[in-house]
Every structure is written in C-alpha cells, then in structure tokens.
C-alpha cells in the first residue's frame, strides 16, 4: 500500500500520469517537440536521412547503424512521398535502397519494421521483375517514377536511414513519465525495460527515483525494482519501451517501469 500511495502522490505532485493500455505512448497536452540530430530530417515522430556514400544493400544496413539508425522502409503513401522528396532534393536521378527484400523466399517480400503485417510496397510498372533471376533487394528510384524496383543486392546505392526523434520538453515544463497498464488499467507489475540502465541506486520510492531521472539528461525511463530484503532499487534507463520493445520484459522479481512520454507528433 505504501507503494500505491506514492503512485498517487506522484500523479498530483510531480508527474501528470495517465493510465495507458499496454503501451507507454502517453498523449499529453504539455508542450513537447520532436527534434532530430543535424543532417536528419523530421517526419512524424522519426528522423530520416540518406547515407552519405553508396553501398551494397547489406553494407547499407550497417552504414545506417553506424550513424545511429536503421535502414528505413516506408509504411504509407505519405511516408513514401516524404522519402522521395528527401532523395530528390539531394539528387534528381536518385536510386536509394529501402529495407525490403525477398532473399529468403523468392517473391515473399519482407520489410524491416513491418513484421506481422502485409508489407507496404508500391512497385513501379513491370516491377518486381527479378531480372536475371537475381533481384532481391528493393530501391526507390527517380527513373522508376519514384516507385519501387527490385535490384541486385550487390548493386551500389545510397540508402534511407531512420531513427526515433528525441522528445524535447520545453524547459519550463516538468518532465512527464507514464506507467504502463493492462487493458483494465492495472499497473503492469514485474514488467521492466532491461539492459538500458545508466546507473542504479537504492531509492525511497517513485518520487525520488522520478526526480533523479528528471535531473539526468540521458534518462528516458526508470525502473523501480524491489529486492528480497524489501529495498527498492531505482534504475535510470537511457531508452523507452517503444524504442526497444524486445527489452521490455516480464521479470521474476517485483519491478515497474515509468517511461518518458513519446512525442505524439
Ligand atoms: Ca527476387
Ligand atoms: Ca527489377
């Protein structure tokens, strides 16, 4: 019960929290703006850029990782149009890799980030043609009317990279944290973001841990872990559960995560 009363205290005093449904997406009217590092362009809640050099498809994936992102695949006509404009500004005759391929099974297209759904594919006329029986990697090209073409994976092109935008909170506003709940609004106990700790220490509770996170510029979320002897460990994380879904896991000890809201726009 002590834990619960702290939770309610935090709602009133420090952090305007909202119950969320199996997500740490926290819509809020507080002023938040998305921002991108230099050389990246903001669209929605993500940042996009082209690699500065040309690579084969596999190396292009690495090049995107090296600049802090991953190779991008558009998920909607609007996103495709944004990416086309980005490439066009740079080179009117562009041909740029996206993160789609049919290397495993010919004709079965997979796009990174679109698992479990039908991939978004806008093929150019007469594409995909698997030319010479060996075209398994997808590019968008000016020459193909700004639509998709399957190409030889060892061909050399620039690539689209994408990364999350940072949420920049206006300085007068307190930083906000959301707690994930199940569909009934119950707090998801024993679910935490693992392997992202910047530092950890024994804490009095949620308010103290939340304040420590608010004062640490790299902190994006925090875990409260209860040890067997009843101590509470505050763990400051440099990521959120939406940025690393795989590491947002059930634990076999008492653990709750509070996450900085994601930018809604
Ligand atoms: Ca193919
Ligand atoms: Ca082709």
UniProtKB/TrEMBL annotation:
Signal peptide coordinates: 1-21
Keyword field: Lectin, Signal
Keyword Signal carried by entry: yes
Residues in Apple domain copies: 178-263
Gene3D superfamilies linked: Mannose-Binding Protein A, subunit A
Residue ranges of domain C-type lectin in the record: 43-162
Keyword Signal attributed: yes
InterPro entries: C-type_lectin-like, C-type_lectin-like/link_sf, CLec_Tetranectin-domain, CTDL_fold, Pan_app
Gene Ontology MF annotations: carbohydrate binding
Pfam families named among the record's database cross-references: Lectin_C
Protein name: C-type lectin domain-containing protein
């Amino acid at each position: 019960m002590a834990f619960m009363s702290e939770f309610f205290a935090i709602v009133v005093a420090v952090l305007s929290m909202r119950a969320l449904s199996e997500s740490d997406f926290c819509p809020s009217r507080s002023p938040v703006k998305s921002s991108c590092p230099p050389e990246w362009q903001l669209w929605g809640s993500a940042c996009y850029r082209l690699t500065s050099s040309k690579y084969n498809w596999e190396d292009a994936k690495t090049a995107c990782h090296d600049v802090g992102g991953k190779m991008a695949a558009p998920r909607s006509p609007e996103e495709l149009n944004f990416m086309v404009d980005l490439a066009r500004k740079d080179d009117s005759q562009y041909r740029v890799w996206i993160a789609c391929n049919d290397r495993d099974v010919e004709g079965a297209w997979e796009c990174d980030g679109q698992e479990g759904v039908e991939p978004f594919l806008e093929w150019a006329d007469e594409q995909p043609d698997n030319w010479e029986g060996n075209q398994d990697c997808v590019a968008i090209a000016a020459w193909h009317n700004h639509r998709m073409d399957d190409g030889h994976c060892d061909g050399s092109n620039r690539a689209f990279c994408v990364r999350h935008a940072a949420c920049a909170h206006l300085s007068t506003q307190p930083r906000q944290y959301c707690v994930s709940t199940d569909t009934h609004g119950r707090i998801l106990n024993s679910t935490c973001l693992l392997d992202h700790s910047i530092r950890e220490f024994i804490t009095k509770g949620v308010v103290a841990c939340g304040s420590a996170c608010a004062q640490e510029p790299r902190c994006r979320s925090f875990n409260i872990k209860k040890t067997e002897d009843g101590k509470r460990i505050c763990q400051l994380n440099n990521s959120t559960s939406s940025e690393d879904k795989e590491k947002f896991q059930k634990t076999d000890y008492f653990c709750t995560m509070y996450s900085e809201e994601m930018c809604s726009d």
